[in-house]
C-alpha cells in the first residue's frame, strides 16, 4: 500500500456524491441544457444525453460473475472507491455501472463520485501517461487512508487502442474511432473490465 496524497481529504469524501446523486446531477443539468464542467456546447450535451442512455442500459443489463462476487466479498476492511468522472465522458458511462454493481456486493465499500474539472488537484495526482483521463477510480482504506489500488480510465485493451490511434490515426476520423470504441464496449459486455477487477481484488 502507498500513503494517499493530501489532495484527498475527509472533507472531500464527505462532500462527494453517491451514484444516485451523480445520475440526478446529470439529469438536472440536462434539463437546463447544461452538462458537468464548463463546456455546454451542443456536442457536449449530446455526449451527456447518450451517456444517460448508456448508463440506463448497463444498469439493467450488466452482470457480475460469482467469482467476482466472491472476491469482492473478501474485502474485510472498509474501503472508499473514489471515482473522478464527468457527465459527458463516454468511458465513464460505459464502465461506472458495472463498478457500482460490483461494489454493491460488499457493504464495506463506499463508492463516491467527484467531478474532474472541479477537483484538478486530485486529478493531477492520478494522471494516466501525463493526461487527465477519466474515469479514474482510487481505492482507499477508510481507516488508514492508504491507497489500495487505482483503475482507469478504460480497460487496458482499449487504452492500447487509444494510444495507438493517437500515435497514428491511419486516416480514421475521431468520430469513427469513438464509434469503434463504443462498439467494443457493446460486444465485450464488461468482461474485460471484470477480469481487470478480479486481478486488482486478488493483489
What this model shows, in words?
This protein is an alpha+beta fold. The chain is 51% helix and 14% strand. It starts with a strand and ends with a helix. It has nine helices and five strands. It has one domain (2-202): Glutaredoxin.
Helix content: 40-55%
Distance between the termini: 11 Å
Order of helices and strands: EHHHHEHEHEEHHH
Count of beta strands: 5
Beta-strand share of residues: 5-15%
Number of domains: 1
CATH homologous superfamily label: Glutaredoxin
- Annotated CATH architecture: 3-Layer(aba) Sandwich
Strand order of the largest sheet: 1-5-4-2-3
Shape: globular
Question: Which class do the helix and strand fractions yield?
Answer: alpha+beta
- Rg, nearest Å: 17 Å
Low-confidence stretches: none
Annotation field: number of helices: 9
**How is the main sheet built?**
5 strands, mixed
Mean pLDDT across all residues, rounded?
A: 95
* Top CATH class: Alpha Beta
Amino acid at each position: 500500500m502507498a500513503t494517499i496524497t493530501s489532495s484527498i481529504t475527509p472533507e472531500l469524501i464527505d462532500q462527494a456524491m453517491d451514484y444516485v446523486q451523480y445520475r440526478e446531477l446529470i439529469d438536472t443539468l440536462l434539463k437546463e441544457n447544461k452538462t458537468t464542467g464548463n463546456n455546454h456546447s451542443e456536442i457536449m450535451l449530446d455526449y451527456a444525453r447518450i451517456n444517460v442512455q448508456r448508463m440506463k442500459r448497463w444498469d439493467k443489463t450488466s452482470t457480475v460473475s460469482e467469482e467476482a462476487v466472491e472476491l469482492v466479498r473478501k474485502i474485510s476492511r472498509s474501503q472508499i472507491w473514489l471515482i473522478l468522472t464527468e457527465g459527458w465522458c463516454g468511458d465513464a458511462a460505459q464502465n461506472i455501472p458495472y463498478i457500482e454493481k460490483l461494489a454493491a456486493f460488499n457493504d464495506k465499500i463506499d463508492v463516491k463520485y467527484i467531478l474532474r474539472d472541479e477537483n484538478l488537484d486530485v486529478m493531477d495526482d492520478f494522471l494516466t501517461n501525463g493526461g487527465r483521463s477519466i474515469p479514474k477510480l482510487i481505492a482507499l482504506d477508510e481507516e488508514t487512508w492508504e491507497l489500495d489500488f487505482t483503475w482507469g480510465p478504460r480497460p487496458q485493451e482499449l487504452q492500447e487502442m487509444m494510444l495507438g490511434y493517437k500515435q497514428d490515426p491511419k486516416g480514421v476520423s475521431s468520430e469513427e474511432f469513438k464509434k469503434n470504441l463504443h462498439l467494443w464496449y457493446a460486444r465485450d459486455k464488461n468482461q474485460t473490465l471484470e477480469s481487470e477487477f478480479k486481478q486488482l481484488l486478488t493483489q
